[in-house]
Amino acid sequence: MSDWSGYLLLILKGAQATVELTVMGTVLALVMAFAAGLGRLSRWFAVRAIATSYIEFFRGTSVFVQLFWAYFVLPMAGLTLTPLQAGVLALGLNVGAYGAEVVRGAILAIGHEQRSACIALNLSTYQRMRYVILPQALPLMLPTFGNNAIELLKGTAVVSLISLGDMTFQAQVVRSQTGNTLIPFATILALYFAMACVITFGMRRLERRMSFGLDGMRR
Hints:
The chain is mainly α.
């Protein structure tokens, strides 16, 4: 029993690494999603081209390959990353590319009459986006952002391939030391599910909070 307690602590230590990777990757993904999503709507062709290239590249290539590039190829160019940094970079950029289309679609979903009203009030582009468009678009983005965060959480398992001690890596260690597959992988299965439930609960509460009072604005 004491041996299994030690193995459980090992997996929980991996869970901490998984949480850190998920949180930091999600922050990077949000930054890239808004940067690229707004870039797709820019009036300047060069900005639209850069944003589109980023989105299509990271959506069209495997996160597995992106992770290996970040960890094994970038050092050849003089940029050496730790396993955690490489995981955050690869997962954040990958999920951010999907999030960018969510941002663009939500902004375009805001009625044309809202934009016309902003022009009539002589609001600047920044003021339109900050005070009128984004407050209405954000609640539309949140459900998909929640799904993207859960996908990023599940995607953290790939970092075990570059020896980052996340839950999946530690479960493999426990399996190799005990010869038991069921217990370690059932444990991380439950932990992944619990983390996904926390994300879902948090996003639903945030969605309700941000949607409060917007019905009148959309009419």
